[in-house]
Write a structure and sequence with these properties.
Length: 245
């Protein structure tokens, strides 16, 4: 929903509904990759409820080949977008993590967003594997080498402590660009005014995975990912302005 401001403790903000979509890091990344590559297999977990069924239908409409495990209750989230386009997220319910994957050796690239440690081990059969530090305890438990670890350098929930075997670590810093193995990269110019920052980071990470997975040089991949993150910011919700090739 759109709010006049994000309230501090004890305050009240005025808001109005703006958009409602199945989203989350995995969903946003899957739709972005589908728009870049022409197809994307999305392995996820959905609750055995109406929200789960509606999410399945919507992801299919968005061009994603979704493969869902059904159990539990679908997680929900409330997103507040302030007058500057900045988003604040509150999740409701436990995260559902996929537990089973098919053989992965025929995939050029896999982006691990959430799952059990054994699920991550299964992804290592793919040629290129990336992940987000949001799942750091599971990444440590799995103990596999990652080609890419990509996340926010300003979100405490995505802090990385150097404990993994990773080829490239990318930490984004919004409008300041970010760091790739400690070297700074510049942000892309916005193609329009800021509307809503929700989904920018996940679209950046998905695009970086796509570009590196197809063999782009790191500098070229970072430039394309920065364009993708900037594009999302100019649209309402996570999907309306995602980059297409």
């Amino acid at each position: 929903m759109l709010v006049d401001r994000v309230p501090a403790a004890g305050q009240i903000a005025n808001g109005m509904p703006d958009w409602s979509e199945p989203a989350g890091g995995g969903g946003v990344a899957a739709v972005q990759i589908a728009k870049l590559a022409g197809a994307c297999d999305f392995y996820t977990a959905l609750g055995e409820d109406e929200l789960g069924s509606r999410s399945l239908e919507r992801f299919r409409e968005l061009g994603v080949d979704i493969h869902a495990e059904w159990f539990g209750t679908t997680r929900r989230a409330f997103v507040q977008v302030d007058a500057h386009g900045e988003r604040t997220i509150t999740t409701v319910g436990a995260k559902l993590r996929p537990r089973v994957l098919p053989p992965m050796e025929h995939y050029d690239a896999v982006f691990f967003v959430a799952g059990e440690a054994e699920t991550l081990r299964a992804t290592r059969a793919a040629r290129f594997v990336s992940a987000t530090p949001r799942e750091l305890p599971f990444l440590r438990e799995a103990g596999v080498r990652l080609d890419l670890l990509v996340g926010s350098g300003t979100d405490p929930g995505e802090t990385y402590d150097g404990s993994l075997d990773v080829g490239l670590v990318v930490e984004t810093e919004g409008s300041a660009g970010g760091l790739a193995n400690g070297a700074r990269f510049e942000p892309a110019a916005l193609p329009g005014p800021v509307v809503d920052t929700y989904g920018a980071g996940d679209s950046f990470a998905a695009t970086l995975t796509f570009a590196l997975g197809r063999g782009d040089a790191p500098d070229e991949a970072l430039a394309l990912a920065s364009r993708a993150g900037a594009a999302v910011i100019t649209g309402r919700g996570p999907y309306t302005a995602q980059l297409r090739l």
